[in-house]
Amino acid sequence: MSEVTIAFLGATDTVTGSRFLISSPQSKILVDCGLFQGVKSVQRKNWDPFPIEARQIDAVVLTHAHLDHCGYLPLLIKQGFNKEIYGTRYTNDIAKIILRDSARLQMEDAKYAAKKGYSNHKDPQPLYNSDDAEKAIDHLRERPFRERVQIAPDAFVTFYPSGHILGSSFVEIEVAGKLFLFTSDLGRNNHPLLSNPDNPPQRDFDVVVTESTYGDRIHDTTPETFAKELNDAIARGGSILIPAFAVDRTEVILMALKELILEKKIPAIPIYVDSPMALSALNFYREAVQARSPEIRDGVSDRFLNQDPFDAGDLHQMATTEESKAINDLETTSIVISASGMATGGRVVHHLANMLPDPKNTVILVGYQAQGSRGRLLEEGVTELKIHGEIVQVNAHISKVESFSVHADSDELIGWLKQAKKPKQAFVVHGELQGQEHMQQRLSAELGWNAIIPKSAQVFTV
Ligand SMILES: [Zn+2]
Hints:
Blueprint: E1 5-8, E2 20-23, E3 28-31, H1 40-43, E4 59-61, H2 67-70, H3 73-78, E5 84-87, H4 89-116, H5 130-138, E6 140-142, E7 149-152, E8 155-161, E9 169-175, E10 178-184, E11 207-210, H6 223-236, E12 240-243, H7 249-262, E13 271-274, H8 276-290, H9 300-303, E14 315-317, H10 321-326, E15 335-338, H11 347-355, E16 362-365, H12 374-379, E17 384-387, E18 390-393, E19 397-400, H13 410-417, E20 425-428, H14 433-447, E21 451-452, E22 459-461
Parallel strand pairs: 3-4, 4-5, 5-6, 10-11, 11-20, 12-15, 12-16, 13-14, 13-15, 16-19, 20-21
Antiparallel strand pairs: 1-2, 1-22, 2-3, 7-8, 8-9, 9-10, 17-18
Helix pairs in contact: 4-5, 4-8
Bound molecules: zinc ion (ZN).
């Protein structure tokens, strides 16, 4: 059989920038095409030219719409990629809003940096603009779950629901007779809105590529922790800021808040959602719930039939910049949910600048915070933070609630992978080194798998 290789072009020594290239003599398939996010040195990698000629790639498989999986697509097209990008229905719908928002944010940041003069560059440029994003969107092609579809002469993909965000999938890919399983970002079995991930297909995989975001962690906080943090914050009399990923996390938080308010575990205070992207994503989730999409957990559609699953009664959806700015002058205790989830950009950064100096306020971190992100620095207890070139004092109370994670933890990942047949080779990606090493050890000790932590740009023959 002719040679098939896999190259690890991102998400190797970091969580972000997922890009894996499978090559056969006949075709080149790129699995995910994400942006690097987090510390400056990682972000800078987005400016590197793509390691192979983009026009040589025959197809892109998109596992889900998170920016670290789809955010590089406009740049791939700028560099000459001119074929199709395959994803499921909601992956494509959500990728559209994510890519448009990403282009807009980068254009705004470049403009802001030019105005304030804090960039090292004379004329700061965005990575890509709205036109580039639209071009990428034109290449998206929708494919159903659980159907094997051809994407190149010798290549096939099957998408399976992975319960991570709406539309998300783990994928089985066959190239020139070699069989690959990519977990991508694997969800958990207790997502309040989404169905559980499918079980792994019972096939003889040559390669399994697994994530390890929480490879060394067990999620141990509960909804009670969230209620307690909220009640403590409300007792302090300030407001509460929750940086949240616009897609999925915002939905899960809103639903949890509705639950807590209905059960009278927290008082019914006003809730503001301040992220245009989150508002668009909310509508897709509402649509999926009302349409009884199979991606939605059993019972959820019945429970929320003809009512908004995300509104406890006092929900404010801030679409415009003026509405967003009005949040600066809130006089009653309120909850503000805003993106981005790691406070690397977006409206939440302005709210942090406004809210962090006041010790009455609380910031609740509800998701994974990448190394070097403002969210991670807050988690680590910094006393000041640089925002838009200025130093902001951190006097607000900072707390962390892990029960909202949409990534399987170490036990959950192993439990899921255990159901697959032992592959010839496993690779551990999408984690920080500690998480990757822990997963590698567990795969080897508990499942007897041969697992490798690939380095950036490393290529393996399958
Ligand atoms: Zn993800």
